[in-house]
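Notebook entry, structure prediction.
Reason for the run: the old model in the group folder had no record of what sequence produced it. Starting over properly, with the input documented here first.
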Amino acid sequence: MTGAKPNCLDIRALHSSGTLTGPFPPRRESPLRWLLTVRARDGRLFVQAMGQGKFELFALDARRWFARITPLELHFEGGSGVPPAFMLLQAGQRLRFVRE
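New structure, fully documented this time:
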């Protein structure tokens, strides 16, 4: 991911934590796990959580993206290229997701 939205990008990333709390906890496993898939298609970037519908993200800059349908941001790590991980900022939580 450099500057403009790429034509094709698939990132499946996983967050594992035994301490996550909130009104909508993910499926309970040991440890607690969330899977997000980030995809770029036709100049647009989408994110989808396991078991939920996908929605579009919009650029704040080359490595920071936000959603319009819910207050959240994704911050991709690394300076250029496909990111090794990203941070999800939502509801006062900062969750780090690492590529599978």
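Summary: Residues 77 and 83 are 5 Å apart (CA to CA).
The old model has been moved to the deprecated folder.
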